[in-house]
């Protein structure tokens, strides 16, 4: 461990602002693209499911018409 | 014009604009870096085959090493002057402001400013250049025999 | 090799391959990222010149390397898509581009936050920095070209062509520090033999590079799966898959 205390770790020898700005913006970007990629996937699957249900309903309605 | 064509046209325009500005930026960077860049010996002896010298009042960039022992700080302002050299003659740089943390004697720096005398530059920007080597202080001391200290400002309010 | 690769040209097989690879990438990314950041931030020694500010290297160098690495993979996929007309390769191009753009943005931001205390400026119009900024514009160009066309066939072709043309920028970025008088220093990591970086700093740096590479792979796989579903959403296999709740 290079630092004696937690506050020293946060201070980064006086460069805390720049170091934490970098690591902060980096984590924000990594998290944002990761989460948005996952959410796109869920949304897409929901859309496909909704479409499948719609087609199912249309099929049923058509069958009832014939009867 | 139908909306699809309009959209496509807009895209093409956007791309042409994007590529254009990219090339523009590149040329701008090159111009800054090549045309106006001098080393101290180029400044004194002339640059290139035609030995072109800058004129007084010209804006230019200069890169070199800070000559050890030449850094003079004003007692009660941020004025600082130092000499810059590469292999031959030295050039004096005058600057007003806070220097970057890496600025120290023997350090490579790049200054931007106006030539006020044939060998004096009034800088408005001083940037420190560092090398690609990284090592712990103990290793540096053992390897190079150098001990790096942060420069001390005469003003107590550097932070 | 082609015989072995050929089945993956089929969307369903490609999707399955993504699923197989995903957990490995996820584990590698998570493990290396945690180790790399803790080691880099708390355990690696401070630099003799730059003190603790140099710790930004542990994200700046990996993101810069991966911004170029992602671009080369994207360009290779684009060539495959153009020459062999393989749809999955085109989808890969579109999946990599946002991740590559994110890496470029991180490299530029962390570089600015490092340049301010050390050089004395957030930004300089230096050849290295300018060409990296152009890389970001190239990623944006590929993405906006793809999304600008209604007809996805011509959209894909246009995006791929731009991706391939933009490869010119990669050697410019790499050699900019040698060709031009830049403020940016030379490469640290390509000079293993001259040990430009002390081993106590090199190891956490390498781990972080693996972590970032893993991240690029991971997010690309997730996005590629999404793109495949988007393009095959009327096919029975997708319906079966989605119906199962996968």
UniProtKB/TrEMBL annotation, chain A:
Q: Does the keyword Cell cycle apply?
A: no
Keyword set, alphabetical order: Cell inner membrane, Cell membrane, Cytochrome c-type biogenesis, Membrane, Transmembrane, Transmembrane helix, Transport
Which subcellular locations apply to this protein? Cell inner membrane
Superkingdom assignment:
Bacteria
Predominant localisation class: membrane
Q: Which GO terms describe its cellular component?
A: plasma membrane
Report any one BP term from Gene Ontology: cytochrome complex assembly
Specify the protein's topology with respect to the membrane.
Single-pass membrane protein
So where does this one cross the membrane? 15-35
Give the UniProt family note: Belongs to the CcmD/CycX/HelD family.
Tell me, in a sentence or two, what this protein's role is.
Required for the export of heme to the periplasm for the biogenesis of c-type cytochromes.
Looking up PANTHER family in the UniProt record yields: HEME EXPORTER PROTEIN D
Per its record, how is this protein called by name? Heme exporter protein D
TrEMBL record, chain B:
Per the record, the GO terms for biological process are: cytochrome complex assembly; protein-heme linkage
The positions annotated for binding heme are 130, 134
Cytoplasmic side of the membrane: what ranges?
1-8
Q: Which GO terms describe its molecular function?
A: heme binding; metal ion binding
**Membrane-spanning parts:** 9-30
Q: Does the keyword Transferase apply?
A: no
Example of a GO cellular component annotation carried by this entry: plasma membrane
Keywords of the record:
Cell inner membrane, Cell membrane, Cytochrome c-type biogenesis, Heme, Iron, Membrane, Metal-binding, Signal-anchor, Transmembrane, Transmembrane helix
- Report the main location listed first in the record: membrane
Q: Which Pfam families match?
A: CcmE
Membrane topology annotation: Single-pass type II membrane protein
**Subcellular locations according to the entry:** Cell inner membrane; Cell membrane
- Give me the Extracellular side stretches, as residue ranges: 30-159
For this protein, the record's NCBIfam families field holds: PRK13165.1, PRK13254.1-1, PRK13254.1-3, PRK13254.1-5
Give the protein's function.
Answer: Heme chaperone required for the biogenesis of c-type cytochromes. Transiently binds heme delivered by CcmC and transfers the heme to apo-cytochromes in a process facilitated by CcmF and CcmH.
Q: Which family does it belong to?
A: Belongs to the CcmE/CycJ family.
Q: What is this protein called?
A: Cytochrome c-type biogenesis protein CcmE
> What species is given as this protein's source?
Pseudoalteromonas holothuriae
From TrEMBL, chain C:
User: For this UniProt entry, what is the primary localization, expressed as one broad class?
Assistant: membrane
**Compartments, record wording:** Cell inner membrane; Membrane
Q: Which Pfam families does the record cross-reference, listed alphabetically? A: Cytochrom_C_asm (PF01578)
Q: Which GO terms of the molecular function aspect are on file? A: heme binding; heme transmembrane transporter activity
Annotated membrane topology: Multi-pass membrane protein
Q: What does this protein do?
A: Required for the export of heme to the periplasm for the biogenesis of c-type cytochromes.
> Any idea what this protein is called?
Heme exporter protein C
Please tell me the species this chain comes from.
Pseudoalteromonas holothuriae
Q: Which gene encodes it?
A: ccmC
